[in-house]
Design a protein that fits this description.
11 strands; single chain; mainly beta
Length: 120
């Protein structure tokens, strides 16, 4: 009924940049918070940053100043712009969204994840 489709990801050199996008589709009434998480092998999934429906953002200390989250409400899409990438940023990145469906129920949805590898 509701689906999050991610695009982007890939291999980038240290210091480089990469942009991810995640579009929500389906029987959507409204989208509240949208967020990006990441998970490296053997580690817990961690919150990278989130953005509210009003555009307010917050970030993990490890990415603050390097990553930027934005959203296009007309397209039901959230973006993650990554700059000055470090090998430590290598992980599978997941999109998450709190969505109210046309039935009036609230649920949290996840994208399938996309691999970001930072290596020379």
């Amino acid at each position: 009924q509701v689906q999050l489709v991610e695009s982007g990801g890939g291999l980038v050199q240290p210091g480089g940049s990469l942009s991810l996008s995640c579009a929500a589709s389906g029987s959507i009434s409204s989208i509240k918070d949208m967020a990006w998480y990441r998970q490296a092998p053997g580690k817990q999934r961690e919150l990278v940053g989130k953005i509210t429906s009003e555009g307010s953002t917050n970030y993990a200390d490890s990415v603050k100043g390097r990553f930027t989250i934005s959203r296009d409400n007309a397209k039901n899409t959230v973006y993650l712009q990554m700059s000055s990438l470090k090998p430590e940023d290598t992980a599978v990145y997941y999109c998450n969204a709190a969505i109210v469906t046309s039935r009036g129920t609230w649920s949290s949805y996840w994208g399938q994840g996309t691999q970001v590898t930072v290596s020379s």
